[in-house]
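Example 3.2
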Amino acid sequence: MIIFKSINKLNKYLENIDNIGFVPTMGSIHSGHGSLIKKSKKICKKTLVSIFVNPKQFNNKKDFINYPRNIKKDIRILRKLKVDYVLFPKYSDVYGAKENKLIKIPKINKILCAKYRPGHFEGVLRVINQYLIKINFQKIFLGEKDYQQLKIISNFVRKRFSVKIVACKTIRHENTFALSSRNQLLIKEDLYKLREIFLILKSFKLRLKKNFKYKYKISDVKNLIRKMGVKLEYLELRDKHTLSKYCNKSNFKIFISYYYKKIRFIDNI
């Protein structure tokens, strides 16, 4: 595994290598990231992982400051996964004088997380845009846990670049809540709370598949989750292809965002 701290040095090394898979991360590597890396290694000649906590996508400075960071542990995990290249870029390396600061998402996308985190996805697109412009890779691997983000990035990339987006399934803890870097901020007992919330959503989804009229009971589900001591931000049913609020029993997904112990969690099932 070769570690780079400069995009220019990385590009010189990758100059004559094709079929490179790219896994962008903000560190705190877990099994979810591991699944993206394994898929890249399976279908690409070489795999590149970046670790950069992007300040542009945080609309809360405390969230940025408190975001879990453990570089030594990340490197140890990435070595075990036999990643070919790791990039630790500096802020000035990612965002230069020519960086496009006018990236905006369409109003139609300002739903779910975009509604509650203004500027978040614009920040995500800014760093992805910089990676696409500055780094030589052919495929980018993204998880379905951040489903809205996946859709927004896919639409953005498809219109501007020839890079292929590879969507990867959400990795879950014992088939319950989605793995997240923020899970590491909780103790083991707290994870039972996340598990119970997932089981409530799973039960709701099973009822919807049998009878979609049960969607009108969503307010009861919201109240049940609130009683668990979490601050519910949103719980919505949307079309899994378009994210439209108009959906049916064959094309819906349940999207949730909530705060527990002042930590924000998202999921979709």
